[in-house]
Amino acid sequence: MFRLQLQIGVGSFLAAVVLAFFFTGCAGGKNSNAAASSIAGWYSVTAQQTPFYHYGPQQGNGPDSQLPRDSIMKVIRPSFGYVKVQLQDGENGYVANEDIGPANPTLVAEKLAPPPPPDPVIASQGGEEQFQLNSNDPRLIAPPEPLPEASPTPAFRY
């Protein structure tokens, strides 16, 4: 009787160890694919440029814009001639199926990388502020003077 209980106990223990091993193996596999999943599913423009339509290729006014080569997007709904996509900036629309293909992982990583931090501002030694003004900048041109007020209209006599 004792041997039977010992054999059942050892068998249960081995089964638990094997299951624990499988579950930890699966969890480790998911973590290693985390970087790949953020890059997977992206497509890029393979043609020199492709028309981008907000409402579909048969909208009355032609394409809304032209997407340059290596613009990245996610396919929302594949179709025969045109696919519905979501651009990197979140804009939805349609592009020709023949003008896009799976994006290169290095291109996706480059496009999705956060912008570099701005250069730190170094204070001047003299305590005075230094401004670099570009006199050709239209924001620095003074607004035109207001027009003189309109004179009252003369009264007509009948």
Q: What is the average per-residue confidence, as pLDDT, rounded to a whole number?
A: 76
Q: Can you count the helices?
A: 3
Globally, the shape reads: elongated
* Biggest sheet overview: 5 strands, antiparallel
Which percent band covers the strand fraction?
15-25%
Radius of gyration over all CA atoms, rounded: 33 Å
Strand order within the widest sheet? 6-5-4-1-7
Pattern of helices and strands:
HHEEEEEEEH
Protein topology:
Blueprint: H1 2-32, H2 34-39, E1 42-45, E2 49-52, E3 65-68, E4 72-77, E5 82-87, E6 92-96, E7 100-102, H3 105-112
Antiparallel strand pairs: 1-4, 1-7, 2-3, 4-5, 5-6
Description:
This protein is α+β, with helices and mostly antiparallel strands. The chain is 28% helix and 20% strand. It contains 3 helices and 7 strands; from the N terminus they run ααβββββββα. Strands 6-5-4-1-7 form a 5-stranded antiparallel beta sheet.
Task: Record keyword descriptors for this entry.
two-stranded antiparallel sheet, alpha+beta, 3 helices
Short description:
This protein is of the alpha+beta class. It is built from 3 helices and 7 strands, in the order H-H-E-E-E-E-E-E-E-H.
